[in-house]
Design brief:
Blueprint (H helix, E strand, L loop, with lengths): L6 H16 L4 H8 L3 H9 L6 H10 L4 H6 L7 H19 L3 H20 L2
């Protein structure tokens, strides 16, 4: 049984919208990153549709924050390096979204995988 959205859903939706707008992201971009229609994302922001836990985590990740911040609305960064990392991630996401060729997107993904595997092994 799906429960109806409540005041907490509305509050979380407002915080998501605020963070998204501060980062210059559109509902369309968020929907695409989440694999859902932007209209569904819009319902999440309005608090008229509950957000599944896994999706809430993905939203927080895309917005460069944690789930708790989506509840509290406190998006202040405690470390400037974390803030820089978040801005860099958002910049990379925006650049990736501008790529229209699916083959190039796959190559981009493979490059990121290769780079991250080198970091994990300390190479």
């Amino acid at each position: 049984m799906v429960r109806k959205a409540n005041e907490t859903d509305v509050l979380v939706g407002r915080h998501i919208k605020s963070r998204r707008q501060s980062l210059g992201l559109t509902q369309q971009q968020m929907g695409k990153q989440l694999g859902i229609p932007y209209q569904q994302f819009q319902k999440h922001e309005k608090g008229t549709s509950r957000i599944p836990a896994g999706r809430l985590f993905r939203i927080a990740t895309i917005l460069g924050t944690d789930v708790q911040s989506l509840y509290s609305g406190d998006f202040l960064e405690t470390h400037s390096s974390q803030h820089h990392c978040d801005e860099t991630l958002i910049e990379v996401l925006k650049l990736y979204q501008r790529i229209s060729n699916s083959d190039i997107k796959l190559i981009f993904r493979e490059i990121v995988i290769l780079l991250s595997s080198n970091i994990d092994t300390g190479d």
